[in-house]
Amino acid sequence: MSGLSFQGWGMHSMPGGSFPGCGIHSVPGVSLTPRPAGRDASRAFASGDFTPAGLVDDVSGLSPPELLSIHSWLSFYRDNYEPVGKLVGRFYDENGAPTEALREAEAAIEGALKFQAEDEQKKQQFPPCNSEWSSAKGTRFWCSRQSGGVHRDWAGVPRQLFSPGVRGSRCVCVRSSGPPWGQPHSFPHSDTGDLQHPHLRQFEGCPPLAEQCVLLTG
Fold first, then answer.
1. ∠ at Cα 216 (215, 218), nearest 5°?
2. What's the confidence (pLDDT) of residue 166?
3. pLDDT for 86
4. Residue 194: pLDDT above 60?
5. What is the SS3 assignment for 39?
6. Nearest in space to 73 (alpha carbons), one of 9, 21, 4, 141
7. How far apart (Å, rounded) are the C-alpha atoms in residues 218 and 173?
8. Cα gap 208→105, rounded to integer Å
9. Helix axes 100-125, 64-80, angle to 10 degrees
10. What is the pLDDT of residue 78?
11. So what's the pLDDT on residue 3?
12. I need a surface site. Which of 26, 60, 140, 181 has the fewest CB within 10 A?
């Protein structure tokens, strides 16, 4: 998010298809246009709404994934196009100085990047289970050394993970031996991995150390 205008002659199509109103392409404070003047349509790069109502520069209230989408587009522009100026408006004033709105948006994206990093770390600790469902057999959850797309040297056992502030649970694979996550040198420890994590719950009717669990259809 730089508030720069990028020159992009003939650039009227981006990954995923062409943009309506293709004379103007912009992300927060960034315009890609074959004309000297640009228009900031930051929000559209997160919402996908390229109608006149969606081509606005207000990025307040966007979710972390939406902010990361804008960040990704901005990185693309910076890597592939030459900046030719700044857009006066929400993110830069007439002197080219950053506004409070720009600082707030940058802080929001930094928060989204931090959230992404924490989410990836949590995925490494608690990889998603494999699962399958059939009307005859119900739902089967199981763990392997590649489940959830996380390659590791342990399979783990299925558990329900409850996240604070989130309704419901999801199935994750949990290390059942060794020290707790992030404490490789702790001693003494119970040699139960992360099974004692307070946000975990065992599936009812499943053996505590089984690598698969079947929930029968009621």
1. 120
2. 85
3. 82
4. yes
5. coil
6. 4
7. 24
8. 46
9. 110
10. 86
11. 58
12. 60
